[in-house]
């Protein structure tokens, strides 16, 4: 959602499907000079104005939730303050949290920033765990927003359970299995098996096509299913010793050093065009990406795309909403945060833009739009993503999680995939950048 980070990619994905009413996210604001824009959640007139600070489009306005809440609570007016880029939003939010003033009544927190918020800003947020039944949320989701002493600073909004989206027509032309269930069995349990399917694809690949869009997407997807990432439970940086990072890196290097990658950078224009021109057969596919694929592939892709379960249950993306202690209307903000993240409201946002809920109680009522289901060959979209969501391992995130990941994907992997460096050289390049990030 943005530029180089996973968070950046999500926002860029959201912005790209602004015109799509049946897709992922709609109506992302244009960047101003500082990356911010303000938009009222509805007409004024309430006695208390609650402000909500978000990055990109969360779908609350688009799904009509602000208007619904204000109708039920006529003494409340909601104003949404949108900062399109998270690299602008989060530093600005940190400054205001530390100053103890200027915060919104509700602040969104991206998954890549939640560890920093928990470890360094917990005293600046209300303990929402005392206000809700935390068992409603997926355990691993709540754990990400909870301090060691049990304070929960944010309520889970969406998540990014993983699947693999693939072109049935290209698989058929390459002589491969096209049934989603049988295909999932072929790569079940390990992303290296997915890479093996890619090797088979390339033996008879339709002219001008590759198996996968990029090595970085394989890395992010594989790492999303690993409990061990860049930090250990004590907050120590272990990225260069992490078994999860090694497995994800090895899988990505198999792709980067082969002919199976289209060598594209996700969310750049050439990647968008490759969807329309059917230049690659598969893409690691968190729930929030299905609308993006639908929009970029266009009518020509309808019924040619399908969705299969990923090799491992994994997560890529998601966010939280928290209530700063510096807010002027804490009581009212807590009530609104609880209402916005309740299963009924999460289901409404899913119906509008396919943001997958973090509360399992919402899953039975989820209904993908008919156009989306038809586009993906009548795949059981809700079932595939909910099965993944329920078994994703709890992952440990650290303060510099996001820039470490960016160094690996946008420097290390790209050095190998696009510049012909060896895996060792790519690793060294990432290591150098990470040391700079960590001040070592």
Topology overview:
Layout lengths: L5 H11 L19 E5 L7 E8 L9 H8 L3 E8 L2 H14 L6 E5 H10 L18 H6 L10 E13 H6 L6 H8 L3 H13 L6 E3 L2 H9 L19 H14 L12 H8 L3 E7 L3 H8 L7 E5 L5 E8 L7 H11 L2 H11 L2 E2 L12 H6 L5 H11 L9 H17 L5 H16 L2
Helix pairs in contact: 9-10, 9-17, 10-17, 17-18
Structure in words:
The chain has 18 helices and 10 strands. It has helices at residues 6-16, 65-72, 86-99, 111-120, 139-144, 168-173, 180-187, 191-203, 215-223, 243-256, 269-276, 290-297, 330-340, 343-353, 370-375, 381-391, 401-417, 423-438; strands spanning 36-40, 48-55, 76-83, 106-110, 155-167, 210-212, 280-286, 305-309, 315-322, 356-357. α2 links the parallel β2 (48-55) and β3.
Summarize the entry for a quick read.
Pfam families: SBP_bac_8. The protein is α/β, with parallel strands linked by helices.
Estimated share of beta-strand residues:
5-15%
CATH-derived topology of the largest domain: D-Maltodextrin-Binding Protein, domain 2
Give the CA-based shape.
Answer: globular
| Percent range of helical residues | 40-55%
CATH class assignment of the largest domain: Alpha Beta
Mean pLDDT: 89
Structural class: alpha/beta
InterPro entries: Bact_solute-bd_prot1 (IPR050490), SBP (IPR006059)
Protein name: ABC transporter substrate-binding protein
Pfam families: SBP_bac_8
Keywords: Signal
């Amino acid at each position: 959602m943005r530029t180089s980070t996973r968070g950046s990619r999500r926002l860029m994905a959201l912005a790209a499907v602004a015109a799509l009413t049946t897709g992922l996210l709609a109506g992302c604001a244009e960047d101003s000079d500082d990356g911010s824009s303000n938009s009222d959640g509805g007409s004024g007139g309430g006695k208390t104005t609650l402000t909500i600070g978000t990055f990109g489009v969360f779908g609350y306005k688009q799904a009509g939730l602000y208007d619904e809440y204000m109708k039920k609570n006529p003494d409340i007016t909601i104003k949404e303050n949108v900062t399109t880029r998270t690299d602008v939003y989060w530093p600005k939010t940190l400054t205001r949290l530390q100053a103890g003033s200027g915060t919104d009544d509700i602040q969104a927190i991206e998954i890549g920033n939640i560890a920093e918020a928990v470890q360094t800003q917990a005293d600046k947020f209300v303990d929402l765990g005392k206000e809700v039944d935390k068992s409603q949320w997926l355990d691993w989701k709540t754990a990400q927003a909870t301090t060691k002493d049990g304070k929960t600073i944010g309520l889970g909004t969406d998540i990014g359970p993983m699947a693999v989206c693939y072109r049935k027509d290209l698989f058929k032309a390459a002589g491969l299995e096209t049934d989603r269930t049988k295909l999932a069995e072929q790569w079940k349990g390990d992303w290296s098996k997915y890479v093996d399917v890619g090797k088979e694809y390339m033996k008879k690949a339709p002219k001008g096509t590759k198996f996968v869009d990029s090595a970085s997407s394989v890395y992010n997807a594989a790492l999303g299913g690993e409990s061990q990432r860049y930090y250990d439970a004590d907050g120590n940086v272990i990225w260069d010793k992490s078994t999860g990072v090694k497995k994800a890196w090895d899988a990505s290097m198999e792709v980067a050093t082969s002919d199976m990658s289209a060598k594209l950078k996700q969310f750049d224009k050439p990647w968008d065009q490759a969807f329309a021109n059917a230049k690659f057969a598969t893409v690691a596919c968190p729930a929030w990406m299905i609308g993006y694929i639908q929009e970029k592939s266009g009518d020509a892709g309808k019924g040619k795309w399908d969705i299969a379960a990923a090799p491992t249950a994994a997560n890529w993306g998601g966010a939280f909403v928290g209530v700063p202690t510096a807010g002027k209307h804490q009581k009212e903000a807590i009530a609104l945060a609880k209402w916005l993240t309740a299963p009924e409201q999460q289901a409404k946002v899913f119906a509008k833009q396919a943001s997958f809920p973090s509360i399992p109680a919402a899953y039975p009522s989820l209904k993908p739009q008919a156009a989306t289901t038809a586009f993906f060959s009548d795949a059981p979209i809700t079932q595939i993503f909910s099965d993944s969501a329920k078994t994703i391992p709890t992952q440990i995130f650290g303060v510099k999680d996001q820039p470490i990941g960016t160094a690996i994907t946008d420097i290390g992997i790209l050095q190998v995939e696009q510049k012909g460096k060896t895996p060792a050289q790519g690793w060294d390049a990432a290591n150098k950048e990470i040391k700079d990030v960590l001040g070592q």
